Amino acid sequence: MAGPMTGYPNWNHPAFHVAAFRLRAAGFTVANPADHGPGETDWFVCVRRGLRELLDVEGVATLPGWEQSRGAALEVHVACALNMPVRNVEEWIVLPGRS
In the chain, how many domains are there? Predict the structure, then answer.
């Protein structure tokens, strides 16, 4: 998932956890950056970890506000360059063939 974290209360983890729960309930395996916990706050470390995880997923689910996030915008840019599907969470959930 890609979404804003910096500047949000609790690094926007509640929104990430809700989105991950909904995607998992729809049958997706989810790489949730909020699952790493609040320990690391260095932006560069977090973005590098996110980019590494991006290489192991099949698509990216975006959270509201991702466009204003440097890190999320970079992840979306890389995903698009790698011809990976990028959709908001709601679009992933309503994909045909998904519960």
Answer: 1
pTM (2 decimals)?
0.91
Tens-place pLDDT, residues 24-75: 999 999 999 999 866 567 889 989 999 999 999 999 999 999 999 999 999 9
Give the residue numbers spanning the domain of 31. 9-93
Query: Is 1 a member of any domain?
Result: no
Q: Give CA separation, 52 vs 33, 64, 96, in Å.
A: 11, 22, 29
pLDDT (tens digit, 9 = 90+) per residue, 1-10? Answer: 999 999 999 9
Which distant-in-sequence residues (6+ apart) come within 8 Å of 34 by Cβ? 5, 11, 12, 13, 16, 17, 20
In a domain, 99, yes or no: no
> Cα–Cα distances in Å, from 23 out to 43, 44, 54, 81?
25, 27, 16, 24
The secondary structure element, H or E, covering residue 46 is helix 43-54
Residue with tokens 């320990």: 39
